[in-house]
Amino acid sequence: MAIPLDLDQLRSFVAIVDTGSFTRAADEVFKTQSAVSMQMRKLEERLGVTLFERNGRAVRITEEGNRLLSYARKILALSQETLSAFDEDAIQGHVRIGLPDDYAERFLPEILARFTRSNPLVELEIACERSLNLAEHIEKGRLDVALVSNCELITGGEIVRREPLHFVTSTAHDVHTKAVLPLALGRNDCAWRQQGCEALDAIGRQYRVLFSSWSAQIVTSAVLSGLAVSVLPECALRPGMRVLSEYEGFPRLRDTEIAVLKARNVDNPVVDALIDHIRESLQNLAPPAVQPAPSGIPETRVVRAPQLTAAW
């Protein structure tokens, strides 16, 4: 009879993939890094495949590792669901959460992964809108929790993360060198837009807003296609983007703040549990992987696709 898979090993395996690091995965599963490394060796021996490719300290998940990942998530989810079905104290319910789409792609996977692992019986209703709209929804009781920026105009939130704000361009284009700088920004009351325009005005740099949208996808597409420069926080950087430096004539911007809003008169353990997971996720989230630009320009960074890293 085949020996069943070890849930603890699968849990560590998924944590490595989700956190992008053996070190962070060890913290996630409350083990030492050497213990997690040993678990992965045993899991590889059990399956007869290589789950990670090793190159010094860099580690990349293999094709076989990706095959295992979908099964591992299903096995762990079913295990948690089974335990919850027999746990009379398991948290159940329905939570309405909102966040801007700038943050959804970067933050939501980590938040959902953490929360659903612990609370598989809770239904999450998710809305993506601009921060000021989300704050209004919170005030009127249409949402339970919201993740927002524009904190200068929104009061009552708990600051859970601060991030650098950057002028960014495409790595493959030189649109940032045009005499009249084309910009892709949020609408007029966007705090990032206001700060970027004020900074350019202060140095006398001519610019023209070519694209204006609340859609992060539209702004990102304009940058990656080389049509415009934008102002984005660290979390919104994508492979193919480059941070523009003071050396290139772009002023340094203030950090942006990210806050959590909770609806008034909401006394719900499900909501409190979700806010706890948001805090933990955003505090432990690694920044996008960056490398020096090939041109060697000081302080310029190119965003690369992230790799898993670990010491074996």
Number of domains: 3
* CATH class categorisation of the largest domain: Alpha Beta
What would you say the CATH architecture of the largest domain is?
A: 3-Layer(aba) Sandwich
Radius of gyration: 22 Å
Description:
The protein has 312 residues and is of the alpha+beta class. The chain has three domains: 7-87, Arc Repressor Mutant, subunit A (Orthogonal Bundle), CATH 1.10.10; 93-162 and 257-284, Periplasmic binding protein-like II (D-Maltodextrin-Binding Protein, domain 2, 3-Layer(aba) Sandwich), CATH 3.40.190.10; 163-254 and 290-303, Periplasmic binding protein-like II (D-Maltodextrin-Binding Protein, domain 2, 3-Layer(aba) Sandwich). The protein has nine helices and 15 strands. It has helices spanning 7-19, 22-28, 33-47, 63-85, 101-118, 131-139, 191-203, 216-224, 269-284; strands at 52-55, 58-61, 93-99, 122-128, 145-148, 158-163, 165-170, 181-185, 207-212, 230-233, 241-243, 256-262, 290-292, 301-303, 308-309. The chain has a five-stranded mixed β-sheet with strand order 4-3-5-12-6, sandwiched between helices. It has a five-stranded antiparallel β-sheet with strand order 10-7-11-14-13. A hairpin with an 8-residue loop joins strand 13 (290-292) and strand 14. Helix 1 crosses helix 2 (22-28) and helix 2 packs across helix 3. The protein is globular.
Topology:
Layout: H1 7-19, H2 22-28, H3 33-47, E1 52-55, E2 58-61, H4 63-85, E3 93-99, H5 101-118, E4 122-128, H6 131-139, E5 145-148, E6 158-163, E7 165-170, E8 181-185, H7 191-203, E9 207-212, H8 216-224, E10 230-233, E11 241-243, E12 256-262, H9 269-284, E13 290-292, E14 301-303, E15 308-309
